[in-house]
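Troubleshooting: if your tokenizer reports a length mismatch, compare your output against this known-good record of 421 residues.
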Amino acid sequence: MAGPSQRLVSRSMAFVLAGGRGSRLMQLTDKRAKPAVYFGGKTRIIDFALSNALNSGIRKMAIATQYKAHSLIRHCQRGWNFFRAERNEYLDILPASQRVDEVHWYQGTADAVFQNIDIIDSYVVDYVVILAGDHIYKMDYEVMLRQHVDTGADVTIGCLTVPRAEASAFGVMAIDANDRITSFLEKPKDPPGTPDNPDITLASMGIYVFSWPFLRDLLSRDAGDPNSSRDFGGDLIPQIVAGGKAMAHRFESSCVRTTPEAPAYWRDVGTVDAYWKANIDLTSFVPELDLWDTNWPIWTYSESVPPAKFIHDEADRRGSAISSMVSGGCIISGTEVRESLLFTRVYTNSYSQLLRAVVLPDVVVERHARLKNVVIDRGVVIPRGLVVGEDPEEDARWFHVSPGGVTLITQDMVDRRAAAQ
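Known-good structure output:
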């Protein structure tokens, strides 16, 4: 067991599961996996898990990819290429490539790790931190690793504290007074409370810590079980809960906050509504997620672009942005931008208005457009005079309108509308 002066992260690796499509994001994931979706003006969703690992001190990482991985792989090659093997640092991208046989791709989350056992062996690590690559949060994994070692757990599971009434959408834990997991329930109708508070439930974050020898043996045995679905949450974790020692790690104890009173921020931006809201929330006066914290930065691929530019100053033709985030390379030409988040190289033209808009890179907004409560996919050219967000029925004819009233606009949708007119 490591002594208190030894950093467990130096003996650990992060294995990031980044192969999922994220179909609830609709057309945003037609061309990219969910972890590669843009977030926060500059970053991709996967940057949060990778940055947490790097900031925690982990210098060995692997990313398992599967669905439409090119965008994700290209981003990691450009933005995460600073690891040096001579310093015992590694970041390997592991696409599903039929490494075990010529039939099977990754069959589940556990199988994605099993198929890369030889690569993990080559890292010579004692512990493996399994991470989902599709959530927004800041967390010090060293704290979770220390709990894992100190409690002698077979697995330690990162857990969110959620109101019991809302916990039916999660995989949840029943625990004893020492946070030992007594049962793992997938989306139960009647979620269990906790011994210290019957009104809250612990929900899985999809973060697991194992010792590598234990996990290696568990994966090998699971691979030989014809009845297994090769999934951590569906197979391996319930097995450990039943016959081993599974411990819950509460996110509040390792969440990275800028101030002690700040909330424990975690978001699954897996729907259009949740994605839009999490981005727009960043434009608030004091956002719950602090992207300006230099002590725990979110690392990403930083493009070489000029500063944002605002031009024209007439009564109805003023380039302005109020309560908004505008990234480098943008030109706001005679457009009023409010409560919006603009990614790199967005060009807007005169007499247009953007209100609560999330605009991905390389979008062009032509003159006289009015866009409200929208998400605009990368590279879309918004035609002159387009009005979105004022007539839901008209919007739904051409675009995807979410249950919460957010309109998702892609170039295919714009082209279809143009062809019909």
